[in-house]
Amino acid sequence: MTASLTVSTISADQHRAFIAGRSSASFLQMPSWGAVKTEWRSESVGWFTDNGAIAGVGLVLYRQLPRVRRYLAYLPEGPVIDWDGDDLSRWLDPMVEHLRGKGAFGVRMGPPVVTRRWGAATIKKAIADDALRTLDEVPADANDTAGLAVVDALASLGWREQATEGGFSAGQPKYNFHLPVGDRDEDAVLRGMNQLWRRNIKKATKSGVEVRLGGRDELADFHRIYAETAERDHFTPRPLAYFEKMYDALTDEDPQRMRLYLAEHEGDLVASTTLVQVGAHAWYSYGASTTEKREVRGSNAIQWQMIRDAMASGASVYDLRGITDTLDPSDPHVGLIQFKVGTGGEAVAYAGEWDLPISKVLYTAFDQYMKRRRS
User: Fold this and answer.
1) Cα 74 from Cα 60, distance rounded (Å)
2) Alpha carbons 53 and 96: distance in angstroms, whole number
3) For a disulfide at 193, which of 99, 113, 197, 270, Cβ 3.0-4.6 Å?
4) For residues 52 and 320, what is the distance between their CA atoms, to the nearest angstrom?
5) What are the residues whose beta carbons fall under 8 Å from the beta carbon of 56, sequence distance 6 or more?
6) 3-state SS, residue 59
7) Do residues 77 and 142 share a domain?
8) Do 228 and 308 share a domain, yes or no?
């Protein structure tokens, strides 16, 4: 008989120590992320075996219902548990009971398990096929049986998958783009890129683009062109204070956790990005570029430097984060996929985000409240 598990609050040090013993975990499941999302209350939780050993951890963010001391408990890209086990209820039931005791009316989580993968060549071919409009319509190059088993298990346990629009839910993206780098050298990664990427990297070098690491005091320079990018690409930018808070929280946990990159041409800032790394997983988290001097290809140069630095830091995956599921050439979002496909990586589908109502009445009220806010 499988031993039971219990869940209780743990310290940030216990949380970090457990993840340090693993190859990686999402940075959204690190204690520092709770210090970034200050509009939520945060808690580190641990799964304990009968002998008191920690078998799993999670960062829980609590969002309060208006005028009621009840909360949605959210574990973004988590928790960090054994998702390959035969009995998920052994892990999830004690978690739900703990969160119920903390006043949660519902639980939302994003299991960090991949269900399907599409290679760059498959995606490129699919975009050129007029009969295909979404990634879901394309047969995957690989199906992950363990990830698909998690999806089936969650449905059987009463969890509800959150609807997505274009591959994005209200939380984290279901579709991401990964560049595997763990068993390759720089030349192999460069050869795996398409001709346009290689040409643009060479052009940036020939044009004199220089990429360097920046300090906290240069976040304002990043934010200046980030705001320009937001206006050009029609999205709402985060304030500078958010990036300062993110930088402070993540680098306080580990000086190399978050890095700021600046690409300059003849003294002008032409692109800037942020990279986050936990163990063997590195994420390109935010990026910006100027409208001026786009011809010097600062965006390609800065990505190539981040990839090289991630490899040098022991990363096995360079994660270019979310993509939409559109393959329609007339959709402006397809340009994002094409840019990332050029790296020669792969699109991956995660299990998505799942909810479990604890109080159906309060959960329904919260769901309606959030729909009104988004409308």
Assistant:
1) 5
2) 20
3) 197
4) 38
5) 5, 18, 46, 47, 79, 80, 81, 82, 91
6) strand
7) no
8) yes
Do 274 and 261 contact (CB within 8 A), yes or no? Answer: yes
Q: Which residues pair with 350 in a beta bridge?
A: 114
Range(s) of the domain holding residue 304: 114-350
DSSP string, 130-148: TT--BGGGSPPSEE-HHHH
- Nearest-angstrom CA–CA distance, 12 and 337: 37
H helix or E strand, kind and range, residue 212: strand 210-214
Same domain, 214 and 124: yes
Q: Where are the alpha helices (H) located in 274-322, listed in sequence order?
A: 298-312
Given a cut of 80, is residue 151 above it in pLDDT? yes
Residues 6+ apart with CB under 8 A from 141: 117, 118, 119, 122, 346
| Cβ pair 315, 282 in contact under 8 A | yes
Q: State both tokens at 371.
A: 């729909």
Question: Domain tally for the chain?
Answer: 2
Residue 375 makes CB contacts below 8 A (sequence gap 6+) with none
Backbone φ, ψ for residue 178 (5° rounding):
-110, 145
Output helix, strand, coil percentages for the chain, rounded to the nearest 5. 40, 30, 35
- Domain membership flag for residue 1: no
Task: Give the whole-angstrom CA distance, residue 115 versus residue 151.
Answer: 8
Angstrom CA distances, 84 to 64, 81, 112, 148, 153, stand at 32, 9, 11, 10, 11
Tokens 């298990």 belong to 153
Q: Kindly state the helix (H) or strand (E) to which residue 287 belongs, with its residue range.
A: strand 281-289
Provide the pLDDT for residue 165. 63
Distance CA 102, CA 86 (A): 28
What CATH number does the domain containing 81 carry?
A: 3.40.630.30
Least confident of 8-12, 249-253, 338-342, 367-371: 367-371
- CB within 8 Å of 195: residues ≥ 6 apart: none
Q: Which residue has the tokens 């600062």?
A: 298
User: What 8-state DSSP symbol labels residue 330?
Assistant: T
Mean pLDDT of the chain: 94
Q: What is the pLDDT of residues 4-45, one digit of tens each?
A: 999 999 999 999 999 999 999 999 999 999 999 999 999 999
